[in-house]
Amino acid sequence: VRQSNITRNLNKGLPMIDKVCSVLGGKKLGVFAAALLMSAGASAGKIDFSDLADGPQGPTIVRPDAVFTALEGEFFKGELDGAIYICAITDSCANDFEWVFNSAQDSLILDLIGHDDGDMVTISAFDDGDALLGSVSASSNGRIDMSGLLGIKRVLVDDSSTGAGYGYVDITFGTSVPVAGDRKSTRLNSSH
């Protein structure tokens, strides 16, 4: 039953993303600075779920680079049009989850699929001291690009959907590189 609900909801089309970057203070790390940091020795990584069987996964998924925890329900792994997705599921994919990287990461990018009317999600990134680095909200399918953030340790997926929720695919990141001087000056500003 869960597989048919997920498949039905994820087959409802892929409209363009409508993302709202809520970077407090409105400041973003420049593309030049991000490129410079990436060229300084950062390595790219991807969270891979392809080795997991389709279907329910339980409340925790352990990957080589991160541990994923469902804050509601359990994880579900499926495939849609060749894209392997995960979501936290009870009756739908409209549930919160988080993941914690083993070490600080940069350049977080992921894609959303399976939009349904009423779907809305906010993805927030935190540093190793649990300070908010930035967040991005979306209400349609597409790319979530947090490549301007440095030192991401924890990611919170806050799904406030009244629809079926999203499937999360292609989670990529770069390894954080120590920067001489005050790293905070190169991050997005945030306040609480």
List the keywords:
192 residues, 13 strands, mainly beta
Mean pLDDT: 76
User: How much helical structure, as a percent, in the residues?
Assistant: under 10%
User: Given the structure, what is the number of helices?
Assistant: 2
CA-atom Rg in angstroms: 16 Å
As a percent range, the share of strand residues is 35-45%
Q: What would the principal axes of the Cα set say about the shape?
A: globular
| Distance linking N and C termini | 41 Å
Outline the low-pLDDT stretches: 1-42, 177-192
Helix and strand content put the structural class at mainly beta
Oligomer classification: single chain
Number of strands: 13
Order of helices and strands: HEHEEEEEEEEEEEE
Sheet bearing the most strands, described?
Answer: 10 strands, antiparallel
Write the layout of secondary structure elements.
Blueprint: H1 2-10, E1 19-21, H2 31-39, E2 44-46, E3 55-58, E4 60-62, E5 66-70, E6 74-80, E7 83-89, E8 97-113, E9 121-126, E10 132-138, E11 142-146, E12 152-159, E13 167-175
Antiparallel strand pairs: 1-10, 2-13, 3-6, 4-5, 5-8, 6-7, 8-11, 8-12, 8-13, 9-10, 9-12
What would you note in describing this structure?
The protein has 192 residues and is mainly beta. The chain is 9% helix and 44% strand. The strands form two sheets. Strands 1, 2, 4, 5, 8, 9, 10, 11, 12 and 13 form a ten-stranded antiparallel sheet that branches. The chain has a three-stranded antiparallel sheet with strand order 3-6-7, covered by helices on one side. A hairpin with a 2-residue loop joins β6 (74-80) and β7.
